[in-house]
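Saturday, quiet lab. Running sequence design on the structure tokens for the scaffold JK sent over.
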């Protein structure tokens, strides 16, 4: 008789990076050397503390991966320290490409004819990496991390992936079976927030449950954010 693998439950936490030092408010995208601000470091420590509390309460957090960009690696650092884990850089978690990278985008910038071809299709979107591609690579990274967590920690293990607002939002909308095109103002993915995907069986191909939390919420007042950063 054929044998079936035992169900393996796992939780994959998608952690958005903390606030970035960006006084000129440019679209920094994949540009190097954009570091967390002092407040951003404090946000990262709050998220790390929340994850450490989970560990103290019995959760087995056994795998940590991060987008290779500076701001995500700096956010992952206190998590690694608190949980005693090595950071695995993962290109699949990176910020999407963006035509407007390096620019401060305002009305005068958007009025330039040279940008118009990149604004023709907001449903794709035409200014950068397609939403579908972002969702696909994030899903691949999430499933891979979940399986690695189960291999390392067994049934019920947990993983942490440090990424960026838009890829995390794409992963969530895809997991919930929602349309990927959206109003950026509707994103529930604040700085240093945790979007936790709970799989009852990582091998079954079923949609996960989504739990959202904001460990650094008390640090948000007065913070201006750029959508997608």
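Result came back. Writing it out in full:
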């Amino acid at each position: 008789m054929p044998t079936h693998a035992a169900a393996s439950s796992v939780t994959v936490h998608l952690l958005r990076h903390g606030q970035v030092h960006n006084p000129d408010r440019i679209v920094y995208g994949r540009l190097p050397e954009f570091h967390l601000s002092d407040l951003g470091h404090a946000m990262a420590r709050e998220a790390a503390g929340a994850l450490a509390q989970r560990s103290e309460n019995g959760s087995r957090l056994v795998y940590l991966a991060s987008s290779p960009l500076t701001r995500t690696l700096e956010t992952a650092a206190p998590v690694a320290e608190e949980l005693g884990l090595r950071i695995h850089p993962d290109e699949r978690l990176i910020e999407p490409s963006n035509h407007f990278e390096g620019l401060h985008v305002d009305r005068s910038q958007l009025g330039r004819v040279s940008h118009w071809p990149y604004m023709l299709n907001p449903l794709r979107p035409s200014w950068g990496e397609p939403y579908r591609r972002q969702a696909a690579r994030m899903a691949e990274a999430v499933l891979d991390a979940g399986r690695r967590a189960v291999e390392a920690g067994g049934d019920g293990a947990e993983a942490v992936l440090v990424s960026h607002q838009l890829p995390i939002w794409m992963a969530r909308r895809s997991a919930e079976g929602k349309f990927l095109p959206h109003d950026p103002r509707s994103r529930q993915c604040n700085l240093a927030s945790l979007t936790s995907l709970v799989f009852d069986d990582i091998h079954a191909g079923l949609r996960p449950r989504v739990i959202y939390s904001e460990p650094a919420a008390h640090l948000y007042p007065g913070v201006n954010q750029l959508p997608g950063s």
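Notes for JK: The chain is about 30% helix and 15% strand. The CA atoms of residues 169 and 214 lie 15 Å apart. Ask whether to fix the surface positions before the next round.
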